[in-house]
Please model this.
Amino acid sequence: MLQNDMSNESLTSEESLAANGRSFHWARRFLGERMGHDAARLYAFCRVLDDMADGDITGGPERLLVIREDLLASRPGQDPALAGFYDFMQEKAFPPDVIVALIDGLLDDQKEEVALTSEADLLRYAYRVAGTVGLLMCHVLDCRDEQARAHAIDLGIAMQLTNIARDVLEDAEM
Model:
């Protein structure tokens, strides 16, 4: 959560990364100027989508559904979050279906009761909320190697599973 309850939507990419992703903010310096900036843009967009799903942005879940439909229709739409990201999305050739999967995972996470009844359900959820981000980062890094892309997805899933394991006690106490 941001200090002063500022919306991530009102921040620049760099401000969002600095405020919310301190370890990523530091690590981005190793990517060089252009890739670091592109990684920050992707991070900021994903952060806004997450804030929408969490209800931290007014009308967020409803806006996500509109963004989802616009992505499926291959149009920038009217929502400022997607409209401001759309040209960058086209430039980096982000697959719209990957962003749709991310949105689906974020929305699933907001259900009253998240029922993961199998390992496959857990891995599907982890793919949607984190493996997708690994795949999108491949586009930022100009990585076209299919084996590396598979590893990027696996890394995202592993990071999400680590976060889940870290938070088990806290979640159980809710």
Summary: The CA atoms of residues 9 and 48 lie 6 Å apart. The chain has a mean pLDDT of 89. The domain at 8-172 is CATH 1.10.600.10 (Farnesyl Diphosphate Synthase). The helical segments are 13-20, 22-27, 33-54, 60-72, 80-92, 96-108, 119-140, 146-172.
